[in-house]
Amino acid sequence: MKKIEHIGIAVKSLSESNSLFEKLLGVPAYKEEEVASEGVKTSFFMNGPNKIELLEATREDSPIAKFIEKRGEGIHHIAFDVEDILSEMERLKKEGFILLNEVPKRGADNKLVAFLHPKSTQGVLIELCQDAG
Fold first, then answer.
1. Domain total for the chain?
2. Per residue in 69-111, pLDDT tens?
3. Cα torsion at 124, 105, 74, 22 (round to 10°)?
4. Which residues form the signal peptide (predicted)?
5. CATH number of the domain to which 78 belongs
6. What is the spatial distance between Cα 40 and Cα 83, in angstroms, rounded to a whole number?
7. Is 85:104 a contact under the CB 8 Å cutoff?
């Protein structure tokens, strides 16, 4: 793993949260995007070398809607940038981590993504990200 790619925050309202983070960070979101397959709309903020992703559910059955219903708004996941997502998935599987995806899928911000189950990472949802190129 090369670095933390971003921190994902589940929010009820992307427009309200965008306003809050614009005030907090002093910059507007650099990108908004919908990932229909995940039932989510996202926005991204840069703060120096750090990236924050805000996630709003677009469907009641989406993972973000379920997360907010169960836990409320807040940190949803930590994403790590990886060089080769397939080999990293295989390595982590051999180390005993539980993968939520058997193959990477298309994510926001032009990434291939895969997730590790929080049961195997002390309650933290971990996302692996590789530039889709």
1. 1
2. 999 999 999 999 999 999 999 999 999 999 999 999 999 999 9
3. 130
4. none
5. 3.10.180.10
6. 25
7. yes
